[in-house]
Design brief:
The complex is a heteropentamer. Chain B is α+β, with helices and mostly antiparallel strands. Chain B is built from 15 helices and nine strands. The chains are: A mainly alpha, B alpha+beta, C alpha/beta, D alpha/beta, E alpha/beta. At the D-E interface, strand 21 and helix 26 of D face helix 5, strand 4 and helix 6 of E.
Chain lengths: ~325, ~400, ~150, ~700, ~190
């Protein structure tokens, strides 16, 4: 029984964290994108429009929740949660502070890489159950994309795992040394790109593809269900950035307390900003370009990274 | 990846009358030889972010590959040609503004040239220079719109905004000149409507170097980008022969290597006095078309600089144009090189102060007819690129 | 190219077309019988008029005047090809076999004037919805949805 | 071959030149835009470079300034030409309209000022003498007939005369032209004169002589009398010398009495005499009195002698018996009532108004057949079209495009005329250079009258003074100051201008009076002297009249029937009744600047038909009852504001035009008059929010 | 019926006046400040609509940004001429939008047919023939600022709405007349 209560509490607090992260992420994205585009972004609500995303969320909560007539109704309703839950779950292994993660497991990295990948099922279901050609195409594209990028992403993390000799992110942070960064740079780039692709962020947003598929797999979702999709996207960004900051950038670098929390937070913000920056700079890939990149560029790069690490390790 | 593996998604390829954002019908269709037809019909438009207005493209896709793309136009058919028969010659000018709404000056000019030919009006030289200057600035604005939407279609919203930034400045100049941002009503039969404000030319000359700089920045940001090149190159290849026989004109034809620019080859107004080049592509793909537009913007800047240098004070309107122009009976056609190609206006007069018939030869209409041919065999993502590279403006296509 | 040179060129190549040629508002006009249209167009294309710029019609009461605008890149010139189609039997040959560009133009003329084109691959309305009745650019077109402009005297 | 770089660095791209050769022979320059071999971005390293280059560009822009205008707090200053919502500056009410009235020496300045500020009604502007026709119409419509007469008399010294013979440029400029038909300004002059007869006695006002200088005026034609009137009004003593037995100059001897009854002329001149004019008839300066005498007696002398003789074209036989000049012919007809053409066939050479007058006089004096031959085609004859129309109605046969070739004579007496076809009158430069064809025609006639030009006769007049004539017998006169080589001698009228209109002569008289006044009061002649503005009012295309209600049309001037009027010299037009005149006067739009007068130009020009204007024209009720702008249809094209003749309708800079209901978008009369002064967006109240953010 | 409508109806019927008012004001605040737009741009006005969300005018400052998907948006901005052929599509897209939804008719073509009102056989004379329009903007085309002004006006209208079906909030409110001055929005 306590397990259930604990799970519930944990789930709710995880949801709150994701919601907050999403609110912040949305606002930050709109401000950064605004500056890139020589405009201001939201200014009206709160200082520098910081509560704009809050108003958006409240509005979305109060909006009509449409289930299209042609949709497969049960699947349609459940799909957002199938996307959201794995992303939320992945947060548990993120080391938010030095030496602390909500779930400090020895296979944290594996957990992080494996669990969010499940959300591809949700995307596929969302696209497929909408009964809409755009959504269907978006779902198919999303599935293809996420499966392709799973491999380079996993391989890229492997380098750090080899260097650190552990799969627990908390441990990696503790053992991090500065020269890991140049050694694992190639892996970091692969990780970064394939994570952006996993998150369906621009320039890999071909499942959503505003200009082609209107909104892709969530084209038919409205109100709160769509908000959940957006929340999982921004939750994913936060998770990825934290994870990347912890693994490749050393996280809190062994500094405890508030300073450590702040350090990893700043690194994560940096990564979020870069994700947004990249997203608003480049055109979108076409699906064949996307797969070419995954298989012909990123996978070999990740393998080279493993070789590099494998060569270096005996010299340590 | 391939939708053909999912036999549930088959669709009726026939007439889809309900114009919708999405197709909801999914019926399994059996071809005549008994095999299931694994085609998905994606209905793009008439309201779609990448159709540049209201165009509907009924797209048959096999997986991601477009097997047939059929444009359905007429969603903005406003009957301008019929309305013009009920307006006086002067009253038609505001109507022409609203045809090519990305480049109102062109339709103004083409129409005015036809009226002038019909009524035998000689335009003063200063007015011709002002027409050239405004129309070349309009070409900049129009091409910036086209380049921007090409990048927007391929997902680079920021490049869109940078190009729109240049366009916005041009529009500010037009606002200072004639008091409107889009529908200028500036070029009139017999001349232009207003003298330029003080310091207008100086402001333009001061701005052009800045524009060159931001244009080259845009060039590096978008056309220099690896992804963008991949998106544009080899997409929608149009051969020179097809371009001619399909009546393509403007950057669409020039991108295919057809060296045909009315400003040079069937020259009009004061264009022979300027030194400028015609950018020509060689591959005929979306990339070459877009590059032609980019280079034409540079050429337009050169023309503007030369024109401002050469322009002299004088009248801006021909003398003795009556309030109601009533040309003698007959018909006349005149054309100019608009941003989209050769834009002509055919006017028939019966001697009354209202045109008996007005027909606008719209370059975008002819260019858009190429879409089924160009889009076939490419992916759905490329469809919007091809459509964007044809640069249709539906006010002009549908009239 | 000057219009007179064009006339000489035309007369030298195709003497039978020569008497049909006239000059109006500085443009060459070739007025042919509807039966000759395809032949004349084909001759003109061989002469160098390689682009079909525009196809349209004018309602002249008893007849429809078909107007084809051909342009030549090599000569930098344009020419009108005109013929009269009877109003009671508005059928004319299609030029799609010579220029694929004629496809949409002829569909538009069909849409607006109800002139049918023989040999056109896809004779449907193009601008108006398929269920539309009447041909709006005919002078006698009436539609109760039109509000006519007030007539200021 | 100029190839420019696409990256702005000035270095040429490695593009191929002329990828696809053009068929034409001409070598045309073009740039190849394909850059396959530009240094492969296809390569692995290059593609990464391109990625980082792009990121650098966006990063630099992100660090740079924003371009946003924060709308409600700071407003982008729209162009002063911005075409926002329309507004009216004023609407014509029933208030008194501004009467253009000032004493002569400053009158031009008044007109000039009004003209510069675009406040001059077109009728006033187009009149050479700037007669305030608008004021006349206003007074007449309001029932103040005497005031109307006196207002007109100030500039047009003989309203009764000019009300009959003027060629009325005012009417061709009238804005009613576009609406239906122009105002009948000239008949209303005449009406005012006729009504004034009742009150003439009691309203007569003698000009007091307030200055001791004296001015002599030679000639009592319209220009001389106009100058005399002005000078009297200024307080000078004026003596007018006339060589004929009756005053009036060309008005008497040159204008047939069917157009101008002699009693009208005498009444008007007597009116001037009553006001203090010293008129001495039968004295010919130069013969009876030498000009030196005048120069000694008077402080200034004004020569307003007019044109005395006709030119006869020296074709073979021009000296035969039966060849006459137009002026002699008219003089005979007017003085004697018989021109000696009874029972004869008459050929009139010339296409001007004088020629038509001669032809119509010849009919009335008993000619059996009258032909009028002129060089010009029938649509370009120099006479006024209504003149030739009336003449043709009466039976004159017009022969256009015919030039005189030879006078055929039998024993020294005219027996006919050989005419030659004329192809064109003017050459390409617009000079008179008739181009004759090869066709000849012979016309049988007994009398040939040349109405081909007139000339002054001044030799006797100037004899003994310092004045010299040029070789053509013309006195050199400054065209704007009307001065001669002698400082105290001035000239005006047709002596200066050559053949012209009566109202044009009157205008020169006013100008000459101004010069004389300045001279006599010791002021500079040219200082602060404004040129006479010549407003170019386009001739409005006449409106179609088929649907116009009868009440809106111009009141038709009743006319005698053609078959009756050719018989005698009674006047052709018979004049307005009181009711007709008041109705006609009320039709006047009362054009004023920056005040909507309801001319409906805007409604006619509007391509959207968004403007509805209604107006009441009834006497005493003249007002605009409706001015509706349907803002939901307006296309903001600016044509209406451009066309507005009074500049009352303008675009404001207002662009915040959101409404909750479509009915609110119809702006009525009051809404159109709203004050829009403050709504144009200006940058004045801008906050520097963007800058503040920049700093942060 | 959306959940929120049920909530509103329940609160209204159970007399939860104060709670309803509070929820209403929250809802109206959120809805007014977050008006995502469906850019139904068909003609010239679409250009100004595009310009409006770009650097110089930046609708995003007011929380208004365009999304092409009707399911995600709150206000449809009809910018441009609507023809008889286009009308069913516009109507359909409007129906695809989730409640609550509003319509702004931008430009005179969408308001009344504008320059195409007379003599055109194919133009719908005002989008209010097929959709309930909340705010009309005059202009041909209106400036992007007019568009922002319309959004402020729409906020005032939204402020009168209640989440309880068929109920209006009582707020101090009058129909604004054109040019009434600065409305809406706080600056950064």
């Amino acid at each position: 029984m306590t397990g259930y209560v604990g799970g519930l509490v944990f789930g709710l607090s995880g949801g709150m964290v994701i919601a907050l992260a999403a609110l912040f992420g949305v606002w930050w994205e709109r401000k950064v994108a605004g500056r890139i585009q020589m405009r201001l972004g939201p200014t009206e609500i709160g200082p520098a429009g910081v509560f704009q995303a809050l108003a958006d969320t409240i509005k979305l909560l109060l909006k009509e929740d449409i289930t299209p007539r042609q949709a497969d109704k049960k699947l349609f309703r459940v799909a957002p949660f199938l996307v959201f839950t794995p992303i939320a779950m992945s947060l548990v292994v993120i080391p938010f502070a030095n030496g602390w993660a909500p779930l400090d497991t020895s296979v944290g990295m594996l957990f992080y890489l494996a669990v969010p990948a499940v959300s591809v099922i949700g995307i596929l279901i969302a696209g497929f159950s909408s009964g809409n050609t755009y959504a269907t195409l978006g779902g198919i594209r999303g599935a293809a994309q996420m499966i392709s990028y799973e491999l380079p992403r996993t391989l890229s993390v492997l380098a750090i795992a080899i260097l650190a000799g552990t799969l627990a992110p908390v441990e990696v942070m503790a053992r991090y040394e500065w020269w890991w960064f140049p050694v694992s740079l190639l892996g970091f780039i692969v990780f970064f790109i394939s994570s952006v692709a996993e998150l369906n962020r621009a320039p890999f947003n071909i499942p959503e593809a505003d200009s082609e598929l209107v909104a892709g797999y969530f084209a038919d979702y409205s109100g709160i269900r769509w908000a959940i999709f957006m929340m999982s996207e921004y939750g994913g960004i936060v998770a990825t950035s934290y994870f990347g900051a912890a693994i490749f950038l050393g996280g809190s670098q062994g500094i405890g307390g508030v300073l450590g929390v702040l350090l990893i937070f700043l690194k994560a913000i940096l990564l979020i900003t870069v994700i947004i920056w990249v997203g608003w700079t480049f055109p979108r890939f076409r699906s064949d370009q996307l797969l070419t990149l995954a298989w012909k560029v990123l996978t070999p790069m990740a393998l080279v990274q493993i070789v590099i690490v494998g060569v270096i390790i005996p010299w340590l | 990846m391939n939708a053909s593996s999912i036999d549930r998604i088959t669709s009726d390829a026939g007439e889809v009358d309900a114009v919708t954002l999405k197709i909801t019908e999914r019926t399994k269709k059996i071809a005549t030889d008994g095999t299931p037809v694994d085609e998905l019909v994606v209905n793009v438009g008439p309201s779609h972010p990448s159709t540049h207005g209201v165009c509907r493209v009924i797209t048959h896709v096999d997986g991601e590959i477009v097997t047939k793309a059929e444009p359905v136009i007429g969603y903005l058919h406003r009957g301008v040609e019929k309305i013009a028969e009920n307006r006086t010659y002067l009253q038609v000018v505001p109507l022409t503004d609203r045809l090519d709404y990305v480049g109102s000056m062109y339709t103004n000019w083409a129409y005015s040239r036809s009226v002038e030919r019909l009524a035998g009006i000689r335009v003063p030289e200063r007015a011709e220079y002002l027409r050239v200057i405004t129309c070349e600035m309009q070409r900049m604005a129009s091409h910036m719109m086209s380049l921007g939407s090409t990048s927007g279609d391929s997902g680079a919203t920021t490049a869109f905004i940078y190009s729109f930034d240049i366009r916005e400045r041009v529009i500010e100049f037009f606002e200072d000149l004639c008091g409107s941002r889009l529908t200028y009503n500036y070029v009139r039969p017999g001349g232009v409507s207003m003298e330029v404000p003080d310091g207008w030319f100086d402001d333009i000359l001061a701005w052009l170097p800045i524009a060159r700089q931001s244009l080259s920045e845009l060039d590096r940001l978008f056309f220099g980008n690896h992804i963008a090149r991949g998106r544009l190159k080899g997409i929608g290849v149009l051969s020179a022969e097809d371009a001619v026989s399909w009546g393509a004109s403007g950057p669409v034809a020039r991108g295919s290597g057809v060296n045909w620019d009315l400003r040079k080859h069937d020259t009009y107004s004061v264009y022979p006095r300027f030194d400028f080049d015609v950018p020509i592509g060689s591959n005929g793909d979306a990339y070459d078309r877009a590059r032609c537009r980019l280079f034409e913007v540079y050429e337009s800047m050169r023309i503007i600089e030369q024109a401002i240098e050469q322009i002299e004070p004088g009248p801006i309107k021909a003398d003795g144009i009556p309030r109601l122009i009533a040309p003698r009976p007959g018909d006349a056609y005149d054309h100019i090189e608009s941003a989209r190609g050769s834009l002509g206006v055919y006017l028939v007069s019966d001697g009354s102060p209202r045109p008996y018939r007005m027909k606008v030869r719209s370059p975008a209409f002819c260019n858009l007819a190429l879409l089924p041919m160009l889009a076939e065999g490419h992916t759905l993502s490329d469809l919007v690129i091809v459509l964007g590279s044809l640069d249709p403006v539906f006010g002009e296509v549908d009239r | 190219m000057k219009i007179n040179e064009l006339r000489e060129h035309l007369c030298a190549q195709y003497p039978d077309l020569c008497p049909l040629f006239s000059i109006e508002f500085g443009d060459g006009v070739l007025l042919v019988e509807c039966g000759q249209l395809l032949g004349a167009a084909s001759d003109l294309r061989d002469l160098g008029f390689d682009r079909l710029g525009m196809v349209t019609a004018v309602d002249r009461g008893e007849t429809f005047e078909m107007v084809y605008r051909l342009t030549s890149r090599s000569m930098s010139a344009g020419i009108f090809l005109k013929c009269e189609v009877p109003r009671d039997n508005p059928v004319i040959q299609s030029l799609t076999s010579l220029w694929p560009a004629a496809n949409w133009h002829e569909r538009e003329v069909y849409d607006m004037f109800g002139i049918e084109f023989e040999g056109h691959p896809d004779m449907r309305r193009i601008l108006l919805p398929p269920e539309w009745e009447g041909y709006p650019l005919r002078k006698d077109y009436e539609d109760e949805r039109i509000i006519h402009r007030p007539d200021y005297i | 071959m100029a190839v420019r770089s696409n990256d702005g660095s000035g270095a040429p791209p490695n593009g191929h030149i002329g990828a696809l050769e053009h068929e034409s022979d001409s070598v045309l320059l073009h740039i190849n835009v394909s850059d396959e071999d530009r240094g492969g971005v296809g390569g692995f390293v290059d593609s990464w470079k391109s990625v980082f280059a792009g990121m650098k560009i966006t990063a630099v822009r992100a660090m740079g300034p924003t371009k946003t205008v924060q709308y409600p707090h700071e407003k982008y200053a729209v162009s002063p030409r911005w075409r926002g919502a329309l507004a009216l500056k004023g609407v014509l009410g029933r208030d008194e309209i501004p009467i253009i009235r000032d004493e002569s020496p400053v009158y031009n300045a008044v007109i000039r000022d009004l003209y510069d500020r675009e406040r001059l009604p077109p009728c006033v502007g187009n009149c050479p003498a700037n007669v305030d026709a608008r004021g006349q119409n206003y007074y007449l419509a309001e029932g103040m007939t005497a005031e109307a007469y006196e207002l007109v008399r100030e500039r047009n010294i003989m309203p009764g005369v000019l009300g009959r013979i003027c060629h009325h440029p005012c009417e061709s400029a009238c804005r009613r032209n576009y609406y239906d038909e122009p105002m009948a300004i000239r008949p209303l002059h005449r009406f005012a004169y006729e009504e004034y007869a009742d009150v003439r006695e009691e309203r007569v006002k003698v000009f007091e002589q307030t200055r001791d200088q004296q001015v002599a005026v030679i000639g009592s034609g319209p220009s001389g009398l106009a100058a005399a009137f002005d000078l009297m009004a200024l307080g000078y003593r004026v003596v007018v010398y006339e060589k004929e037995r009756a005053p009036g100059g060309a008005l008497f001897s040159g204008v047939p009495s069917y157009r101008l009854p002699r009693d009208v002329l005498s009444t008007e001149i007597n009116g001037l005499v009553d006001m203090g004019l010293d008129l001495r008839v039968g004295i010919e300066i130069g013969k009876d009195v030498p000009i030196d005498h005048l120069l000694g007696e008077f402080d200034a002398v004004l020569i307003a002698g007019g044109l005395q003789t006709s030119r006869i074209i020296p074709v073979p036989g021009h000296d035969a018996d039966g060849v006459r000049g137009a002026l002699d012919f008219l003089k005979d007809a007017n003085w004697k009532g018989d021109a000696g053409v009874k029972g004869k066939r008459v050929l009139v050479i010339g296409g001007g108004n004088v020629a038509v007058d001669v032809a119509r006089c010849a009919l009335r004096t008993g000619a059996t057949e009258v032909r009028l031959a002129c060089l010009e085609g029938d649509d370009e004859m120099p006479c006024h079209p209504w003149e030739i129309e009336e003449a043709v109605d009466e039976g004159v046969i017009a022969m256009c495009s015919m030039g005189p070739h030879e006078v055929l004579t039998t024993d020294g007496v005219v027996s006919g005329m050989k005419m030659r076809e004329c192809l064109s009158v003017f050459d390409e430069m617009g000079r008179f250079a008739p181009n004759y064809g090869e066709d000849y025609a012979e016309v049988e006639c007994e009398t040939v009258v040349f109405a081909t030009g007139t000339a002054p006769v001044l030799h006797d007049l100037v004899a003994g003074s310092d004045l010299v004539l040029n070789e053509r017998g013309i006195l050199p006169v400054d065209g704007t100051l009307f001065t001669t080589v002698m400082p105290n001698v001035f000239a005006c009228g047709e002596v200066v201008t050559g053949p012209g209109s009566a109202i044009g002569s009157i205008a020169t008289g006013h100008e000459a009076a101004t010069s004389i006044h300045r001279y006599l009061s010791g002021a500079s002649l040219s200082e602060n002297r404004t040129d006479r503005p010549v407003p170019v009012y386009e001739n409005y295309q006449p409106a179609r009249l088929d649907g116009v209600e009868e009440s809106r049309k111009r009141v038709k001037m009743p006319m005698a029937r053609p078959e009756d009027r050719r018989k005698d010299f009674r006047q052709v037009e018979t004049g307005f009744t009181h009711l007709e005149a008041v109705n006609e006067a009320a039709r006047c739009l009362r054009c004023q600047s920056e005040v909507c007068v309801g001319c409906t130009f805007c409604a006619r020009t509007c391509p959207d038909y968004a403007i509805q204007v209604q107006r009441v024209d009834d006497p005493g009720q003249r007002a605009i009852t409706r001015y509706d702008l349907d803002l939901s249809k307006c296309s903001f094209c600016g044509l209406c504001a451009e066309q507005c003749p009074t500049n009352a309708l303008t675009h404001t800079g207002q662009y915040e035009l959101s409404f909750f209901h479509r009915d609110l978008m119809v702006f009525d009369h009051d809404e159109m008059l709203r004050d829009c002064g403050g709504t144009r967006a200006t940058g004045a109240d801008a906050h520097t929010q963007a800058d503040a953010e920049e700093a942060s | 019926m959306a959940l929120v409508d049920k909530l509103g109806a329940a609160l209204d019927s159970s007399g939860g006046g104060i709670i309803l008012t509070t929820v209403d004001s929250l809802a109206d605040w959120a809805r007014g400040k977050s008006l995502w737009s469906m850019p139904m741009g068909t003609a010239c006005c679409a250009m100004e609509l595009i310009a409006g969300s770009f650097s110089k005018f930046d609708f995003d400052r007011h929380g208004t940004f365009p999304r092409p998907d009707p399911r995600h948006v709150d206000v449809m901005i009809v910018a441009g001429t609507i023809t008889r052929k286009m009308a069913p599509a516009v109507k359909r897209i409007y129906e695809q939008m989730a409640e609550p939804k509003w319509v702004i008719a931008m430009g005179n073509c969408a308001v009344s047919g504008g320059i195409f009102y007379y003599d055109s056989y194919s133009v719908i004379r005002g989008v209010d023939e097929i959709l309930p329009v909340d705010v009309y903007i005059a202009g041909c085309p209106p400036r992007p600022e007019s568009m922002q002004d319309a959004v402020f006006q729409l906020r005032e209208k939204i402020a009168t709405e209640s989440i309880a079906p068929g109920k209006k909030r009582e707020v101090e409110f009058s129909l604004p007349m054109p040019g009434a001055g600065v409305r809406g929005g706080d600056a950064e």
